[in-house]
Amino acid sequence: MSISGSLFARRFGVTEQDLERYLSAALASGGDYADIFFEYIATTSISLDEAIVKSATQGVSMGAGVRVIQGERTGYAYTDDLAPERILQAARIAAAIASGPAKQTAAAFTEPERRDCYPVATPPGDASLSERLDLVRRADEAARGYDGRVFQVQATYGDSLRHLLVATSDGVAAHDRQPMARLNVLVLAREKGGEPRSGYAGGGGRVELGFFLDEKTPEHFAREAARQAVVQLEAIEAPSGEMTVVLGPGWPGILLHEAVGHGLEADFNRKGVSAFTNRIGEQVASPLVTVVDDGTLPHRRGSINIDDEGTPSQRTVLIENGVLKGYLQDQLSSRLMRARPTGNGRRESYQEIPIPRMTNTFMLAGEADPEEIIRSVDKGIYCATFGGGQVDITSGNFVFSATESYLIEGGKITRPVRGATLVGNGPEALKRVTMVGNDLRLDEGIGTCGKDGQNVPVGVGIPTIKLERMTVGGAQ
């Protein structure tokens, strides 16, 4: 490839000769591998509260990070000044941290085959601020108009355009342009003299502003948030004990992401601290369960053309018919585990080292009709939306709160309940899946995953599934 003539090289002011010089400096003290990561990101955010614009900000961040790997040691240094001497200084610092007997040289650069999972002719940032402000105002009006019991609305909009350039001592030189946009609505509602109840909805992805005008409008998200809040006004306290649980399609896949997905990231398994360590080839879930991570889905929030190490994203089968097939790999873990990278080395910014992270993680659809799944349950609970949760990677134990859930009585969804929590173990929960619906749905585009202090955008998804003998926490 010709780095010198690319838009990305011009933006960062580097040539192939510059990259070779920086990588040579990084490997000067020894090292098995080195890479350099350039990032430029422009962001906009708007917040509306009580029909008043509370904040509107725009900003730009730019910098570079240099990494050197020597065995299990990693040296990393970064700079927000792209002057050659500052980048060379960062390279020498990283080299000193990971110095060792091995001394590699950088290979000639080649570019991975290009793909474009999110073609966006006009990034959201090219729209006027007034056009974006109109989105949050429309959301505010729609939420207030949904029901007279709605008394407070918060609407936020944010977009970004991220340019990245990665060069490695293995000879990879890759670049990407990553747009992102998201609209969120939080609604509070209450009966006269009663306690307020909340509802939340939002979405977006790697899309143009037209996505919010044609596909998922501000009114769509506002009405959904208001609906959730109003439903909670009628909710009774959730029951507790062991019972059958049905998870609805879409966002409830966050439970799969947290309780299972993190345990399949390679660094945890390399260190032997995951409930899935050394279990490849074993039956770890019901034969009805197949879980994949796919960073190539068009315009999805978790999709990436390349990861932050320059590796092309891919579709990785993690669990197939209940059998564990593999882990999500970055460069470091794949080298130490003698596996191939899967395009899952991700970082929040140039200030951080890449680590194994999910992209879009979901369970494949089964054959059951969702209505048939509900009819099969005499007494249980249906969880439509989840909030926060906690997971212990080593044991796989989790606790999740369901923000919208209902009783299932006599094969029918009946009264809404509040305060329901699911308590269980990720691998054990997967073994208790007895029915999988044919209605796989991905979330609307709101997922942000935190790990080691770094946040990255992700997608989740799941079809309607039935889990037997789950512990539900609620009213005694």
Describe the protein in words:
This protein is α+β, with helices and mostly antiparallel strands and about 475 residues long. It has a domain at about 240-475. It has 11 helices and 24 strands. It has helices at about 5-10, 15-25, 85-95, 130-145, 210-215, 220-235, 255-260, 265-270, 330-335, 370-375, 425-430, and strands at about 35-50, 50-70, 75-80, 150-170, 175-190, 195-205, 235, 240-245, 290-295, 315-320, 325, 345, 355, 360-365, 380-390, 395-410, 410-420, 420-425, 435, 440, 450, 455, 460, 465-475. Strands 3-2-1-4-5-6 form a 6-stranded antiparallel β-sheet. The N and C termini lie far apart (about 65 Å). The relative contact order is 0.14. The model has no long low-confidence stretch (mean pLDDT about 95).
Q: Quick summary of this structure?
A:
The chain is of the alpha+beta class. It contains 11 helices and 24 strands. Strand 2 (52-70) and strand 3 form a beta hairpin.
Q: Please tally the helical runs, counting DSSP H or I stretches of 4 or more residues.
A: 11
Largest sheet: 6 strands, antiparallel
Tell me roughly what share of residues is in helical segments: 10-25%
Estimated structural class: alpha+beta
Gross morphology is globular
Record the strand order, biggest sheet.
3-2-1-4-5-6
Average per-residue pLDDT, rounded, comes to 94
Beginning-to-end CA distance, first to last residue: 65 Å
Unreliable stretches: none
Number of E-state strands: 24
Strand content: 35-45%
